[in-house]
Amino acid sequence: MDEDVLGSSTGSSSKCSQICTKFSQIYQATLDKWMPHAQIRWASTVILLLTFALRVILSQGWYIVTYALGIYHLNLFIAFLTPKIDPALDFDADENGPELPTKANEEFRPFIRRLPEFKFWHSVTKSTIIGLICTFFECFNIPVFWPILVMYFITLFCITMKRQIRHMIKYKYLPFTHGKPKYQTHETGEVQDM
Considering only CA atoms, which of 8, 11, 154, 167 is closest in space to residue 82? Predict the structure, then answer.
């Protein structure tokens, strides 16, 4: 009798495991299809964020959920702006610390983000969906004086961004690129894409 119970529970857990594996494969395949379409991904996330904001404004509630979502998005944004290898921890022989190459004969070190763009988008989208779902449950609608939360968030944002911008200036890196670099050939003077 114990073998029957054990056999049926093993069979159901195996079936559940197969369903979870199949779901995770479908989810990953969908993410892989979205990967090259950055503009569409971000446009859909902006629409999702606007839907969340409209839900909060029209219902006049869920300010704690909004504040928590804003803090989480701020942390993601800071990780997106920060280099994977922090130059503050990577000291060279000179007293100024490491810098990005400024001359042709120096070593090229590309800017690699701590949080890549796709993972940034994925985390923002997932958290916004979770926040939107939370707005349908009254237990998350905690009464609070929302102007205090707005002022606290603005203060926290300004302090955090000021520190991040100082870090960027001190170690001379820019986390954004504006397209492919174009180089001029010495022989013809033509501009070539690289």
Answer: 167
